[in-house]
Amino acid sequence: MDSSTHSAPIAFKVLTVNVHKGFTTFNRRFILHELREAVRGVGADLVFLQEVLGTHARHASRVANFPQVPHYEFLADALWAQFAYGRNAVYDNGDHGNALLSKFPITHYENHDISVSGPEARGMLHCVLQPPGHQRPVHAICVHLGLRESHRQRQLQCVCELVHGLPADEPVVLAGDFNDWRNRAHGVLLRGAGLQEVFVQATGRPVRTFPAALPLLALDRIYVRNAAVHAPLALPKTPWNKLSDHAPLAAEILL
């Protein structure tokens, strides 16, 4: 008997957002507390975070209400008992990277350095999740790709190699900040890894997310593989347009 017959159908909500290290555009105001309330309000089961601080000694000593714990842990609070962090950039005062907050157990995670030569530190955080009652694990991959097209193409190949190496029948959710304003990632990920972007499949085009106050570029994405149903979710413009330089994306996924 196929083992998939033992798996109960499961629906979950995904949110992805570049949190800009907890500051508004141009670093004018520290808004991590407001951001946490907004993230909690979405009620997502999986939260993909980019540009989230692990530590920052200078901010900790100068910014009022700066958390004494890593920002991904502060955002997780009591709602997401599981979290993983992939440190991408390290500097004198601290570090930042990608993180995943999960309501499902994280059985394994690994951060892949996909930086290309130069000052941009980029990463790909791969987490293996085990939803209760579901036979197969779910692979959640959080990415932040580079600003240069040549760098992104090399990084997209790293994503394809990772996904191609996973068991062909296991679900994959790939989300994050792709910096892909030329819309070239869709074809690469579809051909190389069988990944489909949720909003492109639903509406024919990716959603513009940057800058959040007046979005012009579609930089953020949610891709899936082996999902029975996937549908985009609408999020209100307020308060998100004042919480980061990127607008968030959310989707409902059924396995």
TrEMBL record:
Q: Which Gene3D superfamilies match?
A: Endonuclease/exonuclease/phosphatase
Instruction: Tell me the InterPro entries matching this sequence.
Output: Endo/exonu/phosph_ase_sf, Endo/exonuclease/phosphatase, GPI-anchor_lipid_remodeler
GO terms under biological process: GPI anchor biosynthetic process
Name any one GO molecular function: endonuclease activity
- What are the entry keywords? Endonuclease, Exonuclease, Hydrolase, Nuclease
Q: Which GO terms describe its cellular component?
A: membrane
Q: Which Pfam families match?
A: Exo_endo_phos
Query: What name does the UniProt record give this protein?
Result: Endonuclease/exonuclease/phosphatase
All copies of the Endonuclease/exonuclease/phosphatase domain together span 16-246
